[in-house]
Inverse folding.
């Protein structure tokens, strides 16, 4: 112990002597001695040698720094000179800290507990939190928080009171610290080994860090001495001269030289050192139009994360070409050589940060670097160094195995640097921080791009991020996005971003990587095997990487002066959207059965539009694109709304639970105002500017309920199963109500929005304060605080809710205190539309209605089951007045009229909810009707002529009273309307003249939408005058083919007003239940807002609507009175008690429907039977009841085929052949026939054979082998038949289609991927009508129906004539048929037949490829099918009908195909089997031969 003490005394003595000498004349010699001493003590060899050596070195340093004084007294002396203006206390993860939103300027501001408690924060909006990534106290920093929030210690600016630091106090520190820090860097260099594979040797790194921990702790202790010591450290760390002097001496020392080489290798391996030729090469690849930052991105610290070394994974993967295509032009204003040479380290700080990154941010190093931040000079230098290394940091993070820990430590540093606005602005201007961040983000995402499958799967040029990649799944991008959001919260930085056109282009390209990601394809056949959970990553990525930066930018676009920023964003957003539409080859029809919930470009466009109108007083029309672009913009958000309905209708059930998870996340409180709200707002904007008829038609087409909107009692939906029709119709109408009712972006103030959100949440359920805070959609820009608007959360809450105090339950548990809506809120503010918008679970809507019902009963306002109340809307902002055109367009009026009629007539798939929504839309229309009724008739004629037969004008008020007498409908042939059709004189020709007398034309929504689309695209008014024709076909994604429709004329003689009155009678169960209230009290017309109409059921809603209609028009009032005088409902339901009414009503309707259906089926069966008997000419005792079809004409007429795709009937021709849907299968059934009649037993031992030798296949095989042994090969092949094993069997479902229709059908299947599980590429499909599996089409040979009678009649020709006929036919062989579409198709189907079975079953010749083989194969196909037909018909081709097994025969068509191909071969006359067999008939009596 004495020795150790003496050693310590010697060190202090040496230190004191050197300090004295340095202050005297021999200063240079003393400095040289000190340098030599330090080199010896701090040599790298000594450092890692063990704990003792490190301890010795640190003790020397302490003695030298203190100049021989005791260390503690030196520390006290230095602390006396601490200015103490900033706290700067650094903490690590899980430290408890405070954040005060009232005092904070930056959203990331935080305080240590001591500073918080010593500050004045009473009544402020603050919270205590557990730090996730670590942080530092901002007390005293006026750039981050307001001075009023500083604690007492840091509020006093004590700079002036602190005396100057004596020169000799820190003289030794200035000489010792450079060498100490350089030795630390040497240790770091020495300890680092570039990994052989791209994996850091974590154990080695950890070992080095353990050894160096005392050194870093020593530096950390120095920082705690206060401002004076930090100032010295800053000077040492940032001095370029110190770094240059110490680095230049590496050549003398072998160890130092080796460590310097390792440093250079590390630099090179990081991908930050670029040879000049590589840069030049990359410049050439970029092309002439690329700006300079593209080069800088490749050469400097910006984009090096993806482009540095050629060995990087991202350059080697399959998306290389994709990545190159998406390399985008970056800002051209940043040609700065300092960025080009960023990694030429010039001071200790730069290299120290470099090694901190290489060692993946060791906690001790991070703490030391942060502890230095209170020094302002250091803070600026460190921030610039951090920005210089930014790309390298992100590259290291991407490759790290501990990315979570590393992310936290990166953010721990960056949040301290970028929360300071002045500093952020400075590095943005001097170091191009924005360019670097955006570029790094872009290249980071480029490494995980895949081809988008949205819309045009094969030809799409769009690329999206792969949500399954670790980068997205693990949120590795989080630190980068967090920093970006942080710097955008500063107005000066955001302003620079919004002014830089190049940066905006780059950013929109980055956002487009997320456009259409995580595409969902609807499973139609089998349940998905594995439920992907990538949607978590997708929603998080859009919210964090796209939405939060967007909210940050929007927060700076609040005043009129910022109009130009909005114009810039909207302009480049539209350019990016146009590029996206082009890349996915989008025109106007979305691909079926696909949905993506991610459309960030649409949402950027929508939110900046909203901000432009709401805050910047911009004219909306000046920034909106043309009509064609608006039509494209509306499609994908509309597709999402339709898909939400499909998901809730269980149409996506085979995709698993994850698809429901996506639908719920889309509307969930943390996502809704970045997803569903902008989508609905964008649709509202599109609807306000587009043709209303086009928009309404598009909605119903997207929701797949077009076929349901017919006045006929029966219909067949070509794109939707009947069980889903009701919920999809409800979805479409509910969407329209939402679209026309919501005012979130159309005129409501922030305070009104907050109140509406709160009321909606409270109406669903009582809420605790914390759950309500969580459920109110927050503005994702943290700088704005939680709640929008000037009113506080608490004041709104107290205005709308009562607090129920906590209750102690008998068991001892306590029920939390809850907020419940006030009575006046239920009475006046309950808004079912807002509730529907905000419900994540559908049961919450019912919960709100149940609570509303309970309130009405309790308050005595309404005793029954109420309907959702109608709530008056906030007035629309003038920019969006065009939205109301939807309520006053004829298409919507036709839909409303049709649905009212169908509900009155009890048609299927309609519900109370449908009626509720129909009435809601009518009431919205009356509430928002145009001021003038005088221009009603002006719009008739001209462009809207197709509607004239329905309604004269477009104003709902006048259209309500318009009577429609007859409607022409398209119905299935089985519909009851068919037999009520008037005689031929009233059909189409006669109808044209009678249109004005009230016969409404067939109205097709799809045709209407397409016509309007063409009008808008072509601007061709002549096209618009054509009457809309009914739809004849749909896109072939349909689950069933277009049914056979016929036209019928339906007698209606109703108006919307008369239908409403009859509905009132129906709902009440009484005749003449509606009595106009103004007949007793005229005042209701002057003051229509009567409380008794506010709450009630369907009858109340109808009464309220009729009253409003009467108030708005005297004509309506008069007509209502007239209808009430003479109307009686057709079949009023019996009066039943309100409790049982609903169930019995349903049962009665079902019973009637069943009876009607059975009657129709019986009638249809009878007509079908008589038709078949006449058409097929089958003798039947019931021939006298056959339909009126001329039998004689049938026999000589050409065969007529119905195409199940296009619905057209006609003969098969050479140019446009028709074909039978067939399934080609290889079959070995015939080969299993046996001679023996003994029953077969399954083999139970090895001796027993599974395939006995006496099967038909075995016998024929032996026979052919024997024949080939003795006879010529060609004659053998003509003497046998094959196909007993692997023979081709052709079977059909009996349905026919045009070959060209089939080709387009197959093309649509290939594009739409509807039939997953079938190989469409191999020609597999299902019959469009009956859905039977098929894989080919057998062309029908043109001809008349004479063949049928010939087939069944007995011939009276003699045998010689018949033999001669066969010989004549054989002579025709060898002639080629003419080249027609029919012959091409016959060749095609022959190829299909040959490829159906294996080659070994088609090639029996000794010489492979012999024509005799083909000849044998073709007539064996005929034999195989005849044999199998015999099996089906019970052994007799002339009896048994088409087939006892219900199969249909296709022998006729098959034989024609085979016959055409047989003509290509000539039979060897010497070995003609027919001649050999029939030769005796020339000499002997034919009876002796046969």
């Amino acid at each position: 112990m004495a020795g150790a003490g003496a050693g310590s005394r010697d060190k202090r003595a040496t230190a004191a002597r050197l300090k004295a000498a340095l202050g005297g004349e021999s200063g240079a010699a003393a400095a040289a001695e000190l340098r030599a001493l330090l080199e010896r003590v701090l040599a790298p060899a000594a450092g890692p040698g063990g704990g003792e050596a490190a301890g010795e070195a640190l003790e020397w340093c302490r003695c030298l720094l203190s100049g021989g004084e005791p260390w503690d007294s030196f520390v006290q002396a230095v602390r006396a000179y601490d200015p103490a203006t900033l706290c700067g206390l650094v903490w690590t993860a899980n430290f408890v800290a405070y954040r005060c939103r009232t005092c904070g300027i930056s959203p990331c501001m935080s305080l240590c507990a001591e500073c918080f408690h010593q500050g004045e924060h009473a009544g402020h909006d603050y919270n205590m939190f557990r730090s996730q990534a670590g942080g530092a106290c901002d007390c005293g920093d006026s750039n981050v928080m307001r001075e009023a929030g500083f604690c007492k210690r840091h509020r006093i600016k004590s700079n002036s009171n602190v005396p100057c630091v004596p020169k000799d106090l820190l003289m030794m520190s200035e000489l010792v610290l450079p060498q100490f820090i350089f030795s630390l860097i040497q240790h770091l260099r020495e300890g680092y080994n570039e990994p052989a594979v791209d994996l850091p040797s974590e154990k080695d790194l950890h070992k080095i860090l353990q050894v160096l921990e005392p050194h870093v702790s020593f530096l950390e202790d120095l920082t705690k001495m206060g401002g004076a010591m930090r100032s010295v450290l800053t000077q040492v760390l940032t001095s370029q001269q110190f770094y240059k002097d110490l680095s230049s001496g590496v050549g003398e020392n072998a160890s130092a030289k080796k460590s310097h080489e390792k440093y250079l290798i590390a630099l090179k391996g990081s991908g930050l050192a670029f040879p000049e030729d590589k840069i030049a090469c990359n410049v050439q690849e970029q092309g002439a139009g690329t700006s300079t930052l593209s080069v800088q991105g490749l050469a400097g610290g910006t984009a090096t994360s993806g482009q540095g070394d050629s060995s990087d994974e991202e350059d080697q993967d399959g998306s290389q070409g994709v990545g190159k295509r998406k390399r985008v032009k970056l800002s051209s204003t940043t040609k700065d050589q300092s960025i080009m040479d960023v990694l030429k380290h010039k001071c200790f700080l730069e290299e120290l940060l470099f090694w901190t990154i290489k060692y993946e941010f060791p906690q001790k190093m991070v703490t030391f670097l942060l502890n230095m931040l209170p020094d302002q000079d250091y803070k600026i230098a460190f921030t610039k160094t951090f920005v210089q290394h930014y790309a390298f940091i992100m590259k290291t993070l991407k490759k790290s195995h501990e990315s979570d820990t590393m992310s936290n430590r990166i953010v721990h540093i960056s949040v301290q640097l970028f929360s300071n606005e002045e500093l952020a602005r400075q590095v943005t201007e001097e170091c191009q921080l924005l360019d670097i961040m955006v570029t790094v983000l872009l290249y980071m995402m480029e490494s995980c791009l895949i081809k988008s499958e949205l819309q045009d799967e094969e030809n799409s040029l769009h690329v999206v991020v792969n949500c399954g990649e670790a980068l997205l799944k693990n949120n590795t991008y989080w630190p980068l996005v967090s920093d970006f959001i942080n710097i955008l919260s500063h107005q000066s930085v955001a302003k620079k971003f919004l002014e830089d056109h190049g940066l905006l282009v780059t950013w929109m390209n980055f956002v487009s990587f997320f456009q259409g990601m995580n595409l969902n394809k609807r499973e139609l056949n089998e349940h998905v095997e594995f439920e992907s959970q990538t949607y978590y990553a997708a929603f998080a990525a859009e919210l964090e990487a796209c939405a939060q930066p967007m909210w940050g930018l929007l927060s700076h676009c609040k005043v009129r002066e910022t109009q130009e920023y909005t114009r810039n964003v909207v302009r480049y957003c539209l350019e990016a959207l146009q590029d996206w539409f082009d890349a996915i080859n989008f025109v106007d029809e979305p691909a079926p059965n696909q949905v993506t919930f991610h459309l960030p470009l649409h949402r950027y466009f929508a939110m900046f539009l909203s901000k432009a109108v709401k805050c910047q007083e911009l004219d909306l029309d000046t920034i909106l694109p043309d009509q064609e672009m608006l039509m494209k913009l509306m499609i994908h958000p509309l597709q999402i709304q339709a898909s939400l309905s499909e998901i809730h209708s269980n149409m996506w059930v085979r995709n698993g639970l994850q698809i429901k998870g996506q639908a719920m996340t889309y509307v969930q409180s943390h996502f809704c105002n970045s997803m569903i709200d902008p989508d609905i707002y964008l649709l509202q904007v599109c609807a306000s500017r587009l043709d209303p008829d086009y928009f309404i038609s598009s909605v119903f087409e997207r929701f797949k309920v077009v076929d349901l909107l017919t006045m006929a009692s029966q219909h067949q939906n070509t794109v939707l199963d009947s069980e889903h029709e009701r919920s999809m119709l409800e979805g479409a109408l509910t969407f329209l109500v939402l679209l026309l009712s919501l005012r979130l972006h159309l005129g409501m103030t922030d305070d009104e929005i907050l109140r509406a959100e709160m009321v909606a949440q409270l109406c669903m359920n009582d809420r605790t304060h914390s759950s309500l805070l969580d459920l109110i959609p927050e503005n994702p820009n943290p700088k704005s605080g939680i709640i929008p608007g000037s009113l506080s959360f608490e004041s709104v809450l107290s205005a709308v809710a009562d607090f129920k105090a906590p209750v102690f339950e008998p068991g001892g548990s306590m029920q939390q205190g809850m907020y419940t809506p006030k009575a006046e809120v239920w009475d006046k503010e309950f808004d079912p539309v807002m509730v529907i918008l905000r419900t994540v679970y559908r049961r919450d809507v019912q919960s709100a209605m149940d609570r509303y019902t309970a309130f009405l009963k309790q308050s005595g306002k309404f005793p029954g089951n109420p309907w959702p109340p109608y709530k008056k809307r906030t007035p629309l902002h003038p920019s969006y007045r065009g939205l109301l055109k939807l309520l006053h367009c004829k298409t919507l009026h036709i839909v409303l009229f049709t649905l009212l009629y169908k509900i009155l007539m009890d048609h299927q798939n309609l519900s109370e909810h449908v009626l509720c929504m129909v009435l809601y839309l009518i009431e919205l229309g009356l509430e928002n009707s145009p001021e003038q009724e005088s221009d009603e008739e002006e719009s008739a004629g001209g462009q809207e002529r197709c509607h004239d037969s329905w309604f004269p004008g477009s104003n709902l008020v006048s259209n309500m009273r318009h009577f429609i007498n007859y409607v022409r409908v398209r119905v299935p042939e089985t519909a009851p309307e068919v037999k009520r059709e008037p005689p031929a004189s009233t059909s189409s020709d006669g109808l044209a003249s009678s249109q004005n007398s009230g016969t409404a034309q067939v109205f097709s929504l799809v045709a209407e939408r397409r016509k309007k689309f063409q009008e808008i695209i072509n601007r061709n008014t002549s096209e618009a005058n054509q009457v809309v024709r009914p739809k004849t076909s749909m896109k072939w994604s349909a689950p069933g083919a277009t049914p056979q429709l016929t036209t019928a004329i339906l007698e209606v003689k109703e108006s919307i007003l008369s239908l409403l009155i009859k509905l009132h009678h129906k709902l009440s169960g009484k005749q003449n239940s509606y009595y106009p209230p103004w007949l007793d009290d005229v005042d209701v017309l002057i003051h229509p807002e009567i409380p008794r109409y506010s709450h009630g059921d369907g009858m109340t809603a109808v009464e309220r609507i009729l009253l409003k209609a009467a108030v708005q028009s005297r004509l309506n009032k008069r007509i209502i009175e007239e209808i009430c005088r003479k109307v009686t409902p057709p079949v009023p339901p019996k009066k039943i008690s309100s409790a049982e009414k609903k169930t019995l009503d349903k049962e009665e309707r079902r019973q009637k429907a069943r009876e009607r259906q059975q009657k129709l089926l019986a009638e249809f069966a009878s007509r079908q039977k008589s038709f078949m008997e006449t058409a097929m000419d089958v003798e039947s005792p019931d021939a006298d009841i056959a339909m009126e079809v001329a039998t004689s004409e049938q026999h000589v007429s050409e065969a007529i085929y119905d195409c199940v795709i296009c619905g057209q009937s006609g003969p098969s021709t050479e140019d446009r052949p028709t074909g039978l849907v067939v399934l080609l299968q290889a079959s070995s059934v015939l080969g299993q026939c046996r001679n023996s009649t003994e029953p077969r037993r399954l083999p139970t031992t090895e001796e027993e054979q599974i395939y006995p030798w006496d099967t038909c296949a075995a016998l024929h095989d032996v026979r052919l082998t024997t024949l080939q042994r003795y006879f010529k090969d060609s004659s053998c092949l003509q003497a046998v038949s094959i196909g007993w094993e692997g023979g081709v069997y052709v079977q059909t479902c009996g349905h026919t289609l045009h070959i060209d229709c089939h080709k387009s059908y197959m093309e649509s299947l290939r594009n739409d991927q509807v039939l997953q599980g079938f190989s469409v590429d191999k020609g597999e499909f299902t019959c469009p009508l009956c859905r039977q599996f098929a894989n080919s089409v057998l062309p029908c040979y043109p001809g008349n129906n004479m063949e049928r009678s010939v087939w069944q009649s007995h011939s009276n020709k003699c045998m010689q004539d018949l033999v001669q006929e066969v010989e004549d036919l054989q002579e025709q062989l060898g002639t080629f048929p003419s080249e027609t579409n029919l012959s091409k198709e016959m060749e095609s189907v022959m190829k299909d037949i040959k490829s159906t079975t294996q080659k070994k079953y088609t090639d029996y010749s000794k010489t492979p490829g012999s024509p005799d083989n083909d000849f044998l194969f073709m007539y064996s196909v005929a034999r195989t099918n005849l044999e199998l037909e015999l099996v089906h018909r019970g052994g007799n081709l002339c009896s048994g009908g088409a087939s006892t097994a219900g199969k249909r025969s296709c022998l006729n068509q098959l034989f024609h195909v085979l016959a055409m191909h047989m003509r290509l071969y000539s039979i060897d006359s010497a070995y003609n089997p027919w001649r050999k067999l029939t030769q005796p008939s020339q000499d002997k009596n034919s009876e002796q031969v046969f």
Notes: The two ends are 132 Å apart (CA to CA).
